[in-house]
Amino acid sequence: MVPRPRRLLRHEARPLREASCLTRDESKGKAKGKFEQATNTLTGGGGEAQLAIAGVGTVKCESASSEEQLRSPITGESKFSLQGCRLAGESCSSVGSTAGTIASSALEALVYEEGEKLYTAVVGEPALMSFTCDATRYTVSGEASGETTGATNAMASTAKVHFAPGAGSQALRTEDGKGSAETTLELTLTTAGTEALELRTGS
After folding, report:
1. How far is 193 from 40, CA to CA, in rounded Å?
2. Dist CA 189 CA 171 (whole Å)
3. What is the architecture, at CATH level 2, of domain 39-200?
4. Nearest CA-CA partner of 88 in 62, 61, 64, 59
5. Three-state DSSP class for 96?
6. pLDDT at 74
7. Domain ranges in the chain?
8. How far is CA 22 from CA 6, 7, 31, 111, in A?
9. Which of 27, 43, 59, 163 is least surrounded by CB atoms within 10 angstroms?
10. C-beta neighbour count of 37 within 10 angstroms
11. What is the distance between the alpha carbons of residues 172 and 192, in angstroms, rounded to a whole number?
């Protein structure tokens, strides 16, 4: 099992003793530790993105945005949306979204380390996203991870997550009522926290 990274924040009150964020350190009810687990909200934005659906075509989008709420040192709930999306010239939209906007469901997010690199994985149940293009409904399910850079073993307010073949792993499929097709996601998000955070690698 590879070592897990830890998301940490610096505050004046630091109740945790070590970088793994596992042991409280207090004296007479006052915090003495050097670290504290993050309870941070991350927002992100990106440029062009695309979903390539085998046998169907490529959904191309003009921009992207995201929001993630950290729930623990390495997990969180994430949502992202893609704007200006079209497939073969036809606008694509999720239910409840503006025209051309594809919105994900609430996704489980996990940061992990592999081969001395950090990755952010997202998975949705029962699906990552669903949308309609020219009266055809598409549902994308499975999971994907993107290489994560920045904020590693140092305090920083931003990080970058890159989803693409070869920059993590992808196991995505899209159903359109006629069958299921392999799908790849290409998306780069630059995320920023409301407070500086650290992705600490190692146990």
Report:
1. 7
2. 19
3. Beta Barrel (2.40)
4. 59
5. coil
6. 74
7. 39-200
8. 10, 12, 14, 17
9. 27
10. 18
11. 27
Task: Retrieve residue 163's tokens.
Answer: 């989803």
Residue type, 16: L
Q: What is the mean pLDDT of the chain?
A: 81
List pLDDT tens digits, range 39-96.
478 899 999 999 999 999 999 999 999 998 887 767 889 999 999 999 999 999 999 9
> pLDDT, tens digit, for every residue of 185-194?
999 999 887 6
Question: Beta partners for 147?
Answer: 119, 162
Cα dist. 43→74, 79, 146 in Å?
16, 10, 16
- Count other Cβ atoms within 10 Å, centred on residue 7: 24
How do 107-114 and 86-87 pair as beta strands?
Answer: unpaired
Residues 195, 36: contact at Cβ < 8 Å?
Answer: no
Which pTM was predicted?
0.78
Q: Count CA atoms closer than 13 A to 186's CA, side-chain side.
A: 14
Task: Report the candidate in 2, 122, 1, 21 with the shortest Cα–Cα distance to residue 11.
Answer: 21
Element holding 117 (H helix, E strand): strand 117-123
Matching residue, tokens 């399910």: 141
